């Protein structure tokens, strides 16, 4: 597969311009009815994302029960667990796709009962999906350019007329998208329709679309599912490089224990919607409950099925 | 399912513009020199109006992914609004009446687009039927819209712009051509802008679009408004330039389906596809009737023709959906690619 033929070189070089930090700081944080300034002293001072007592159920199925979780700035946190444990549900709650029955999500200093999905990108959160969620009818480049949608200020009239603002936005978004494509070794497929790429490359385009928004928090739902070992390693390098160059906080769901242990700073283990372990990779690996519930039973799931 | 591509992402710029310029030259210079008045009256005028309606529906359905069966309603709103603005506002230039009619259609489109915020696909399509029936009912019921004319059929005003009157078949053809060319160009700009990208994003994956910060509700409503604006003006062309009368009957559900077929046969999410589709829909019945009377003589009367048309068209649509879901435009791309390779091969020999 052509995805594997690239060298790993250049990962350390900054793919983003120096004004990245400026953008991150300058993110527009409009207040909403659904959010209140956080007064919860119990949450970690250093954390950028907290879940407090989150419970989520579908009919009779309890997907998450009383989940407390806090993610530190610049941390790579992995969430593991058997199929149906509630991993994707956590990311869906954080991104506002699901509304929890109880509990709160604390994001950029505010408590939410339901995170406003529409404002997610402005809050500095980007995500990928377990099942591919690319815009199949757009080129790879345009998919990534679309990742800048939250920055668009020009009106459609201005865009039709080719106003200075609209053109500047377009040029800026294209430049950034091209750089991210280069960073992820995707430049050669920039013109292809996203839906026509092999699975592994599509996963990587999704990462590109998330990264181009220069998120403070990156949520990755099984970004390496269905990839070969080489592709997985490459992907892990990309994630690490994004953290190292941008200071992005990463929450990652992954079934491949080898990848998880190598990549993450901390691992959270879920089983039947409960958090059964939370610690460094070494601690988690030695935890008897984890071994019983997960590691011993289903060491790997490569087919990437599920929601 | 194959992905729905937007217009020609791969072709290079100069070639594309050369084709467009050549077509415009033919349309503006070649056709009027050669064409008979039958060509203008029976083929080119309905072709232009339906093409524009197809462009409008394609923005909504092809690009933004919102299925609509109310196209003819928005055309009707445009036609009647233009008629009434022209009739009731003294000294309003015709062009202003037409633009205002576009806005009226956009406003109605916006209202009937509201269900799209909750409904998708089939259910949305059914709810747009409400537009179709409501508008036709209102236009028939309230004779004020038809200036209380007894028959409900009214003459369209003369097509005069800044003192110049577009008269006769060729004049009306030029009028329609100007309007269609201008709006097609603007539509082309729109679908290639950030907003056009947002349309496709909402169509292909609404959740992902929302997550990356696309204002999904606003985008859907904008698609309804812009699309209805264009279809409204297509309705004006249909009534003012082609039929020369304004009547609700011509804007029925059949017309809405016809425009949907134009978009499907021509190719979803393709501006030029609307022109391919409209050409086929307009020319095909004429060819069929010629062919029928040539082969069968007197047996092939208008009843038989009508039935044959429906059957053949139905079969054609099914064939397209199965064999070429991306429409005539995809066929065209493939043929062009073939020719290109053949040329290159013959040149290199
Ligand atoms: N939209 C939904 N509707 C109904 N039930 C759901 C929905 N989403 C998740 N669930 C249920 O919630 C539970 C947790 O699902 P979730 O997708 O979070 O698991 P997961 O850990 O991501 O599993 P996998 O490894 O298979 O992706 C499962 O029992 C699932 O069936
Ligand atoms: Mg999952």
Keywords, please?
heterodimer, A: 307 residues, alpha/beta, six-stranded mixed beta sheet, five-stranded antiparallel beta sheet, 10 helices, 11 strands, disordered N terminus, B: 349 residues, mainly alpha, ABC transporter involved in vitamin B12 uptake, BtuC, two-stranded antiparallel sheet, two-stranded antiparallel ribbon, 4 strands, globular, binds adenosine-5'-triphosphate, binds magnesium ion
Task: Please give a structural write-up.
- The complex is a heterodimer of chains A (307) and B (349).
- Chain A is an alpha/beta fold and 307 residues long.
- In chain A, 32% of the residues lie in helices and 21% in strands.
- Chain A is built from ten helices and eleven strands.
- In chain A, strand 10 and strand 11 form a beta hairpin.
- In chain A, helix 3 crosses helix 5.
- Chain B is built from 13 helices and four strands.
- Chain B has one domain (2-251): ABC transporter involved in vitamin B12 uptake, BtuC.
- Chain B is mainly alpha-helical and 349 residues long.
- Chain B starts with 12 loop residues before the first helix and ends with a helix.
- Bound molecules: adenosine-5'-triphosphate and magnesium ion.
- Magnesium ion binds next to helix 2 of chain A.
- The site of magnesium ion has 5 residues of chain A, from helix 2.
- Chain B: It is found in: Cell membrane.
- Chain B: Keywords: Cell membrane, Membrane, Transmembrane, Transmembrane helix.
- Chain B: Its main location: membrane.
Unreliable stretches covering 5 or more consecutive residues of chain A: 1-42, 298-307
DSSP summary, beta strand count of chain A: 11
Number of helices of chain B: 13
Query: What is the gyration radius of chain B calculated from CA atoms?
Result: 21 Å
Describe the global form of chain A. Answer: globular
Q: Whole-number radius of gyration of chain A? A: 19 Å
Strand ordering within the main sheet of chain B: 1-4
Q: Which strand-content bin applies to the residues of chain B?
A: under 5%
CATH topology of chain B: ABC transporter involved in vitamin B12 uptake, BtuC
Which molecules other than protein and nucleic acid are bound? adenosine-5'-triphosphate, magnesium ion
Keywords (chain A): ATP-binding, Nucleotide-binding, Transport
InterPro entries (chain A): AAA+_ATPase, ABC_AA/LPS_Transport, ABC_transporter-like_ATP-bd, BCA_ABC_TP_C, P-loop_NTPase
Domain ABC transporter (chain A): 49-297
GO molecular function (chain A): ATP binding; ATP hydrolysis activity
């Amino acid at each position: 597969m052509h995805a594997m033929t690239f060298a790993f070189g250049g990962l350390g070089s900054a793919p983003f311009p120096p004004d990245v930090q400026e953008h991150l700081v300058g993110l527009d944080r409009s207040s909403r009815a659904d959010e209140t300034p956080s007064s919860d002293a119990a949450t970690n001072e250093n954390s950028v994302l907290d879940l407090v007592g989150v419970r989520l159920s579908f009919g009779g199925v309890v997907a998450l029960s009383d989940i407390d979780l806090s993610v530190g700035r610049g941390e790579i946190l992995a969430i593991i667990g058997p199929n149906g444990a509630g991993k994707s549900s956590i990311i869906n709650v954080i991104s506002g796709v699901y509304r929890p029955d109880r509990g709160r999500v604390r994001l950029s200093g505010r408590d939410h009962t339901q995170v406003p999905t529409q404002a997610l990108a402005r809050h500095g959160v980007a995500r990928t999906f377990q099942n591919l969620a690319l815009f199949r009818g757009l080129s790879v480049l345009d998919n990534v350019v679309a990742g800048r949608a939250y920055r668009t200020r020009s009106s459609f009239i201005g865009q039709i007329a080719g106003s200075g603002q609209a053109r500047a936005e377009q040029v800026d978004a294209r430049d950034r998208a091209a750089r991210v494509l280069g960073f992820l070794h995707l430049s050669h497929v920039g013109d292809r329709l996203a839906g026509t790429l092999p699975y592994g490359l599509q996963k990587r385009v999704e990462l590109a679309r998330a990264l181009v928004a220069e998120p403070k928090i990156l949520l990755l739902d099984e970004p390496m599912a269905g990839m070969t070992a080489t592709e997985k390693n490459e992907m892990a390098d990309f994630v690490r490089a994004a953290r190292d160059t941008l200071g992005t906080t990463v929450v990652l769901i992954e079934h491949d224990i080898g990848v998880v242990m190598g990549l993450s700073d901390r691992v959270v283990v879920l089983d039947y919607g409960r958090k059964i372990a939370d610690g460094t990779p070494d601690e988690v690996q030695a935890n008897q409950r984890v071994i019983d519930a997960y590691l011993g039973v289903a060491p790997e799931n490569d087919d990437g099925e599920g929601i | 399912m194959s992905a729905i591509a937007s217009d020609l992402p791969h072709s290079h710029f100069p070639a594309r513009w050369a084709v467009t310029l050549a077509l415009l030259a033919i349309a503006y210079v070649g056709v009027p020199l050669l064409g008979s008045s039958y060509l203008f009256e029976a083929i080119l005028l309905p072709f232009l109006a339906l093409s524009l309606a197809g462009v409008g529906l394609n923005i909504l359905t092809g690009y933004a992914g919102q299925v609509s069966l109310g196209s003819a309603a928005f055309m009707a709103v445009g036609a009647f609004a233009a008629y009434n603005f022209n009739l009731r506002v003294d000294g309003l230039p015709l062009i202003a009446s037409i633009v205002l009619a576009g806005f009226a259609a956009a406003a109605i489109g916006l209202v009937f687009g509201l269900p799209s915020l909750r409904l998708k696909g089939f259910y949305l399509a059914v709810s747009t039927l409400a537009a179709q029936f409501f508008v036709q009912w209102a236009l028939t019921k309230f004779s004020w819209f038809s200036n209380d004319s007894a028959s409900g059929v009214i003459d369209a005003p003369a097509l005069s712009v800044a003192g110049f009157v577009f008269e006769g078949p060729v004049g009306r053809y030029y009028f329609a051509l100007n309007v269609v060319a201008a709006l097609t160009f603007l539509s082309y700009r729109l679908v290639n802008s950030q907003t056009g990208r947002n349309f496709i994003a909402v169509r292909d994956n609404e959740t992902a679009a929302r997550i990356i910060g696309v204002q999904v509700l606003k985008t859907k409503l904008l698609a309804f408004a812009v699309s209805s604006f264009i279809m409204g003006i297509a309705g004006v062309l249909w009534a003012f330039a082609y039929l020369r009368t304004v009547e609700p009957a011509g804007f029925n559900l059949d017309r809405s389906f016809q425009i949907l077929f134009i978009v499907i046969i021509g190719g979803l999410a393709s501006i030029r596809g609307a022109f391919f589709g409209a050409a086929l829909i307009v020319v095909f019945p004429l060819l069929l009737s010629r062919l029928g009377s040539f082969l069968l003589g007197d047996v092939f009367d208008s009843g038989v023709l009508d039935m044959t048309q429906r059957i053949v068209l139905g079969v054609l649509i099914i064939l397209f959906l199965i064999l070429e879901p991306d429409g005539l435009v995809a066929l065209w791309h493939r043929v062009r690619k073939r020719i290109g390779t053949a040329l290159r091969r013959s040149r290199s020999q």
